[in-house]
């Protein structure tokens, strides 16, 4: 008898019908954020390098100090998204709403399995060496330092946080994933270049598309990428731009990164697109609906940013395979 996950995957795989670019049939329900079909041939082994899973909070409770409360989006829905986008691999990142509790991410890794999924964890000063070793065995391949969500904009404070994270990594096969902004990253350029572990910047390294590729700090990121010292996720275009749904002002940023070093780029959807922005009329415990994003269109944008197929396949397949040890 097929498991629930296998049944869902079979239903998704057998029900895709494309009509005028719209995704219809059972896939609309299984992966409702995929509203249009992807406009290019997705290569085998392609990876979404930035997603989150939000299972039942009764089993996986949120952190009391969280800044927002996202809707439930469990691993089954992530698997449906993978099938809808014809992706074979995924990297699950622990979001800030869990603090340093990685149980939800680990559950996602278990459900999707080691052939498909890897993870990025969030750890704290009290995370023991034994716990860190257990994370490695579970499929964790990096740790995330979320300076943006924590409101850490002082480069001196950020420098100490990075040093502490590197010490916790030790000899483990992990990279350091950083979510921050250019005004924090730029002053740390020399420190970042000297770190003994790979550095991965989330979401275009916090660049704002409206300011263009010449904005202060972006050149420092390009230098780090060009030298091979840092990676950048081509993810969260809607975080960099307000010009939905195609975010045309993101194009110069993407092209500049590709020109710098396509071997240090990966792509991510940032599914399920949490609205983590604070609002005066919303308490952290109030439900924050996800942003209205078309994941089919997001993936299609990659073909506009990276029109060369061989380079695009490298970003989707080869680079994630190396970075996440698939």
Characterization of the model:
- The protein has 13 helices and 10 strands.
- Residues 1-20 have low confidence and may be disordered.
- The radius of gyration is 19 Å and the shape is globular.
- The longest helix is centred in the C-terminal third of the chain and has 16 residues, at 309-324.
- The protein is of the alpha/beta class.
- It has a single domain, classed as TIM Barrel, CATH 3.20.20.
- It has helices at 4-14, 26-30, 75-85, 103-112, 129-138, 155-169, 182-185, 189-194, 218-226, 237-240, 251-260, 295-305, 309-324; strands at 17-19, 22-24, 47-51, 89-93, 117-121, 140-146, 175-179, 199-201, 230-235, 265-268.
- The strands form 2 sheets. The protein has an 8-stranded parallel sheet with strand order 3-4-5-6-7-8-9-10. A two-stranded antiparallel sheet has the order 1-2.
Q: List the domain count as a whole number.
A: 1
Strand content of the residues, in percent?
Answer: 5-15%
Number of strands: 10
Helical content class:
25-40%
Assign the CATH superfamily. Answer: Metal-dependent hydrolases
* Computed structural class: alpha/beta
The CATH architecture term is Alpha-Beta Barrel
End-to-end C-alpha gap: 29 Å
Descriptive tags:
326 residues; alpha/beta; TIM Barrel; eight-stranded parallel sheet; two-stranded antiparallel sheet; 13 helices; 37% helix; 14% strand; globular; disordered N terminus
Topology:
Elements: H1 4-14, E1 17-19, E2 22-24, H2 26-30, E3 47-51, H3 75-85, E4 89-93, H4 103-112, E5 117-121, H5 129-138, E6 140-146, H6 155-169, E7 175-179, H7 182-185, H8 189-194, E8 199-201, H9 218-226, E9 230-235, H10 237-240, H11 251-260, E10 265-268, H12 295-305, H13 309-324
Helix pairs in contact: 1-3
